[in-house]
Amino acid sequence: MSINYYAVTPDTPQDDEGLHIGKHVGGKEFLFRAHPDLGLVTVAAWTAYLSRPDVKIMAESGYEEPVENFLADATQRPADLGPGEGHLWPRQAVSFRAERGVPFADYEFC
Predict the structure, then answer these.
(1) What string of DSSP letters covers 66-92?
(2) What does the pLDDT profile of the chain (110 residues) look like in tens digits?
């Protein structure tokens, strides 16, 4: 099972999902979507953006995720988890790794 997450602001059009944050796939580490044009290429940049009071983090299924919970889960590393948890993404899926090896993809994915 996979879940895509989106950042939604008051400016987000009603028929738009929002800015793609990334994807969680059961058993894998969170894959962040890099947006170089917006400077969102590090965990620190995403943290600052998502912590703004006008930003909501929405799962594609429609529920809102609190920023603290989302960031704790999204930045958890396989080394932080127990054996057999948090499998890495295949090398070809990851464009680069940021702080603590958090994976980013600088291309559109779903």
Answers:
(1) -HHHHHHHHT--GGGS-TT-SBPPPGG
(2) 799 999 999 999 988 999 999 999 877 889 999 999 999 999 999 999 999 999 999 999 999 999 999 999 998 876 565 555 557 778 888 899 888 888 999 999 87
In a domain, 47, yes or no: yes
Tokens of 66: 């609190």
Which range marks the domain in which residue 20 is found? 2-105
Among candidate residues 95, 75, 79, 96, the one with its CA nearest the CA of residue 87: 79
Give the chain's domain count.
Answer: 1
Classify residue 89 by burial, with Cβ atoms within 10 Å: 0-12, 13-18, 19+: middle
Q: What is the pTM of this model?
A: 0.88
